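Subject: Re: docking follow-up (S-adenosylmethionine)

Dear J.,

Thanks for your patience while I sorted out the input files. As discussed at Tuesday's group meeting, I've set up the holo structure prediction with S-adenosylmethionine included as the bound ligand rather than trying to dock it afterwards. The sequence and the ligand SMILES I used are pasted below, so you can double-check that they match what you have on your end before we go further.
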Amino acid sequence: TEYAHTAEFYDFITPYRERQDVSFFVEMARQTGGPALEVGSGTGRVLIPTARAGIEITGLDLSPSMLAVCRKNLAQEPEDVQARAQLVSGDMRNFNLERRFNLATLPFRPFQHLVTAADQLACLKTIHRHLNPGGKLILDLFNPSVQFLADESKLQEFGDEAEFTMPDGRKVLRRARIAARDYFRQVQDSELIYYITHPDGRQERLVHRFQMRYLFRYEAEHLLVRAGFEVENLYADYDKSPFGSKYPGELIFVAKR
Ligand SMILES: C[S@@+](CC[C@H](N)C(=O)[O-])C[C@H]1O[C@@H](n2cnc3c(N)ncnc32)[C@H](O)[C@@H]1O
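The structure tokens for the complex came back this morning:
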């Protein structure tokens, strides 16, 4: 899961830039009034708009390179926005910030980097301890598509994203592959493959390989309840369309401590 060599590309990836989830998370943060905790906050894609909206937010991430990109992004913001955002290096399975929040979020599926039930429970219990009574958790997962899981063509490189250009002139094309599937552990090994052309013509190929566990609806619900949460809402999308209204859709839980 270490994003070491590819963190610098994250904010340039078209499907990440175009994700329609930011206003959903900002609106939830507004409703709770903050302070908010984003677990797996990455480059600040959601954290920074939340701080801009006037909400105090702490971002926790394990990757030094993602934290570094986020720090750089934050440094471009006005002082009041910077003052509302705090970054912490930590592991979502076990951290202690010695304070409590009214909202905890895991936008864009960081939770699925945890591949054992023990790690998943440790994470949810740790978050539970960091919420005020009545505080909310938004657990953002993808809803596994049975067609995708069975699609053998995904074992070969695929992707139709356009090439993008970095500020230093490197051209980058990203493709993907499912490198391995374990139907018993519900884990897929994903590869994000970056083809880089340097301004001097040199070619480079970087592979970011990581594991993701898929969770079905009831498994996630049972985990939340075991960790002490009460499920309030379940959405198929960030426009709050109800789970079941489209397939596969997302698996977005709003739960309460
Ligand atoms: C797909 S990114 C999501 C980033 C951000 N929330 C967003 O919506 O753009 C997943 C993030 O989870 C972080 N992560 C993975 N495992 C982690 C762990 N055990 N503890 C904390 N962060 C972790 C990664 O470093 C990465 O920044």
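A couple of observations from a first look. Residues 1, 3, 40-42, 45-46, 61-63, 66, 91-93, 107-108, 110, 113 surround S-adenosylmethionine (CB under 6 Å). The longest helix spans residues 117-129.

Let me know if you'd like me to rerun anything.

Best regards,
T.
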